[in-house]
Amino acid sequence: MPDVRLTTQGAISDEALRKAEAYIEQEEGAANRLSGRAGLIVTIIAVASTLFHLYAAYAIVPTQELRYTHVGFVLVLCFLLFPLAARFRNAIRWWDVVAAVCCVGILAYALIGGEEFTDRAAVPDRWDVVLGVIFIVLLLEATRRTTGWIMPAVAILFIVYALVGPWLPPPWTHRGYTFTRLVGHLFITLEGIFGVAVDVSSTLIIMFTIYGAFLQHSGAGKFFIDFSLAVMGGKPNSAGRTVVLSSFLLGGPSGSGVATTVTIGAVAYPMMARAGFEKNAAGGLLAAGGLGAILSPPVLGAAAFLIAEFLKISYLDVIWMAIIPTVLYYLSLLFMVELDAKRFGARNVPYDTSLTIPQMLRRYGFHFVSLFAVIGFMVAGYSPMLSVFWSTLLAFGLSFLRPETALWPKKLVRALSDGTIGVLNAATTCASAGIIVGVVTLTGLGLKFSSIVLAYAGNSLLLTAIYTALIVWIVGLAVPVTASYIICAVIAAPALTKLGVPDFAAHMFIFYYAVLSEVSPPTALSPFAAAAITGGDPYRTTLQAWKYTLPAFLVPFVFILDPMGVGLLMAVPKNGTWIDIALITLKTAVGLGALAVAAQNWGFRRCTTVERVGWTLAGLLLVFPSLLEPASEWLLGIDVPQPAWFGLVLVVVLAAWQIRTR
Question: 492: Cβ–Cβ under 8 A, 6 or more apart, which residues?
């Protein structure tokens, strides 16, 4: 691979990297480091799981068999790889083996039972209930090991809600369900644990995880970072630009915000420090880049696959909807980087590369091919599963174009093993979230909750949107992105759709706010990991990350508050044309630029207080005309039909004034 090195010293210390990796473990669980016979057994199971899912992507495996087998592999590996407690790390204990065997036995019982077993869902027999309870307990324990105690606690609260419904005060009351009926619904039907979330986990999520593992072990991640350094190097603002470009390239295949933050930070922060970036600002930019990993096509985060399933649309449609918001996000980041270069007086950092960009592309540019192939196969009419299946095989075949990237048997085994191990966190989350979804559908909680939200909001779309954002944000502080999206999609989305918001806009709104948990304390893992690398203050770094992720906070409101806002999701507005999509995109981009100037307090020079207020007002007029129009009409008593034009004029006036006076 091309060796891009900084000419001066400044590598990240081992201690800083260990601290950063600890935050990855908080997100993905602290796994055992196994060797010898134990390591070989786990590798064999993980490889077998990956081969099974590759076969299932190409052949036809019945739904029940696929979901049960998927969960079986996941639970077995969770109990073998994730210890009961930290003091039991790096060894497989007898209780781990017992738990794994019990999971296999219970799922085998369900599969052998066939249709007779599924027909007993409403009236399960004694063994069904006993084994169902044991299985639910084992599932919650596996989830606790991989994601922490909060997700299992939330699932237990929903189970309690289903049981005590008749004794709850209105409007939360419901007729209640017996323990036997509830266990049958959650364990036997395909509407509980083995419902939509596990369906997505057993098909799309694991296939993209396998694909990402093949890219990683063929050296694609290193190439993407080296390519970004080569393209952006040699300029005072090259350090920040490198973070933005590499986060986009590396984030797509990884789909993990914290991992992307740490990977890029370990390489890019020394260059950022020597360029003159302040520690907290550098960490904030790294965290914002990591957040982009969950927003960027073609992979996005695991929750994006669930959007397609909930809305019964193609995953290609989800990618299509994510294009403009992703472009706006990275344009805003790049603009803030340019302002940072001026604000910090960034210096040029020389670097050394043994290859020119054309040489690098000729030797290693094939890594881009499979990324484009994912989209190409879907456009050609292949299902998402088959598209990523063929793209994975393509990545495998192309790796042999260079001897140092070739996936020979040893590297291939690691890629196959990591393909399944990488999905364990998301898979246990999806399975436990199935408990929540099952309770919500059984009790009708989603409709009750939406009625409560609408009552508090007085049927105001603005207040409903704000309440929904706060609910998603608060839930996201406690549980992973995937879980917060699932919970809020079933309990909060109906409130928005009742007020006329298109269902796809409502779900994308919830998805983006679920993702924001990555930069929101007290579980702001990406900024905290970035602070561990930079040596900055975690909370100041989080505040800086909020500033850089400004578009991620604001753009989702445009989806639902502006009548033309669905244009940002590549949907033609009602009674509109494609020109409206271009206009809303341009208007929002200029507005985000104005808000970026206000956030950075720097335009063509440092802003005065009055100028900063002016930039803020201009940005809001452009991004949220439908929000400010009623307020201006109420204050002034006159009709202001197009406040966005006032924002545009204000941007021009402020820019001209700062240019003249700098």
Answer: 449, 450, 453, 468, 471, 472, 510
Question: What sign results for the dihedral spanned by CA atoms 515, 519, 520, 522?
Answer: positive
> Is-contact 152 143, C-beta < 8 A?
yes
Phi, psi of 351 (to 5 degrees): -140, 165
Tally Cβ neighbours within 10 Å of residue 608: 12
Let me know: does 21 contact 262? Beta carbons within 8 Å.
Answer: yes
Query: Cα separation of 571 and 504, whole Å?
Result: 10
Distances (CA, A) of 287 to 242, 261, 327, 526: 14, 6, 17, 5
Residue with tokens 């700062």: 658
Q: What are the structure tokens assigned to 343, written together?
A: 């604000």
Closest CA to 445 of 159, 108, 199, 65: 159
Q: What are phi and psi of 630, to 5 degrees?
A: -60, -40
* Distance, CA of 384 to CA of 407 (rounded, Å): 24
∠ CA(581), CA(583), CA(587), 5° rounding?
120
Please tell me whether residue 495 adopts helix, strand or coil conformation. Answer: helix
Domain boundaries, the chain: 27-194, 575-661
Instruction: Enumerate residues 6+ apart whose C-beta is below 8 A from 441.
Output: 191, 490
Number of other CB atoms surrounding residue 380 within 10 Å? 10
CB atoms inside a 10 Å sphere around CB 535 = 16
CA-CA distance, 424 to 270, in Å (whole number)? 33
Note the residue count of the chain. Answer: 662
**pLDDT (tens digit, 9 = 90+) per residue, 528-549?**
888 888 888 888 888 888 888 8
The contacts of residue 543 (CB under 8 Å, 6+ apart) are 280, 284
Cα(83)–Cα(148) distance, integer angstroms: 12
401: DSSP letter: G
Angle at 49 between CA 48 and CA 53, to 5 degrees: 115
pLDDT in tens, 614-661: 999 888 888 877 655 555 555 655 555 566 778 888 899 999 999 988
Which parts of the chain sit beneath pLDDT 70?
1-14, 17, 19-30, 233-234, 236, 251-256, 346, 348-353, 478, 521-523, 626-643
Tally of CA atoms within 13 A in the half-sphere of 357 that contains its CB: 9
Q: How many CB atoms lie within 10 A of CB 10?
A: 12
How many CB atoms neighbour CB 206 within 10 A?
Answer: 31
CA 65 to centroid of chain Cα atoms = 28
